[in-house]
Amino acid sequence: MSIDKSLVVRGRLGRSRNVYRRAERLKILETEGRWADGESVFGLPKVKSVRIKKKPKAEKEAPKEEVAATEAESKEKSK
């Protein structure tokens, strides 16, 4: 018996998140210098989430050997 697609657990979300967990917010604030150890973890300032744009799928390039072979063939034909 197979599992329905909606019940399959995936490694990560398919979309970007716009809310960080407290630990993630603390890490970002610490790198920006807006939070130091010993300060309260309650009432943290907002952190802007960065959206990552997906790059379009590039066509796979042919291996260099194949390209060189096709160039050599075209030179021979032109002679």
- Low-pLDDT windows of residues: none
The sequence of SSEs as H and E is: HH
Distance between the termini: 64 Å
Mean pLDDT: 77
Radius of gyration: 26 Å
Strand content: under 5%
Shape: elongated
Classification by helices and strands: mainly alpha
Q: What is the total tally of β strands?
A: 0
Percentage of residues assigned to helices: 25-40%
**Biggest β-sheet description:** none
Q: Helical region count? A: 2
Describe this structure as you would to a colleague.
This protein has 79 residues and is an all-alpha fold. Helix content is 33%, strand content 0%. It has 2 helices and no strands. The chain has helices at residues 22-32, 64-78. The radius of gyration is 26 Å and the shape is elongated. The termini are far apart.
Short description:
This protein is an all-alpha fold and 79 residues long. It has 2 helices and no strands. The chain is elongated, with a radius of gyration of 26 Å.
Keywords:
79 residues, mainly alpha, 2 helices, 33% helix
List the helices and strands and how they pair.
Elements: H1 22-32, H2 64-78
